[in-house]
Amino acid sequence: MKLTAIISVIIIALTQSGCRRVEPGSVAAPQPTKGVPMSYEVEKSEQQWREDLTRDQYNVLREGGTEKPFTGKYYKFFEDGVYKCGACGEELFYSKDKFDSGCGWPAFAQPTQRENIEERIDKSHGMVRTEIRCAKCGSHLGHVFTDGPAPTGLRYCVNSAALEFNAMIGTEKKEEK
Question: For 54-83, what is the mean pLDDT?
């Protein structure tokens, strides 16, 4: 009986480490989008998405998958630039807002613009979380939690496979010719 209780506590601790629950109505919790958009600025057939994305990108961006923690190409990557949606190129996060949260995925304190991120309630895996999606194409990015640094108190936990990085010089974008 004691062994079962100990194993249960360990399992609960392991499943909640790195990604804490967001309780509905908590003070700093982002407010999920009311309703889901009927259409996005960028729309493609599933066949087109499959052709345009790698297998890993498709799994994360279009099927809502999650890459294994501590494995993504941007997890320990800290260069100046902007992170864009891997599916449509929408600017999502600046490197100045990236921090090492220790959760196993790239973490950001805030998006480049609030309207570039769509939020939805996610009740999968026995938790209540706030899923984040690209507002331009509807692709899954990750989740947002309320355990981030000041001043926002938010941690946008994003899959590397959902992102593309563009370097910046100082605080100005590189000019594309």
Answer: 96
Is 85 annotated in a binding site? The answer is yes
103 is in an annotated binding site: no
Statement: the pTM of the whole predicted model exceeds 0.90:
no
- Is 25 within the bounds of a domain? no
User: What does the mean pLDDT of the chain come to?
Assistant: 82
* 19 annotated as ligand-binding: no
Peptide bond connecting 151 to the previous residue in cis, omega within 30 degrees of 0:
yes
- Classify residue 29: in a domain, yes or no: no
Q: For position 119, which CATH number holds?
A: 2.170.150.20
Range of the domain at 167: 41-172
The total of structural domains in the chain comes to: 1
> What residues are annotated to the active site?
157
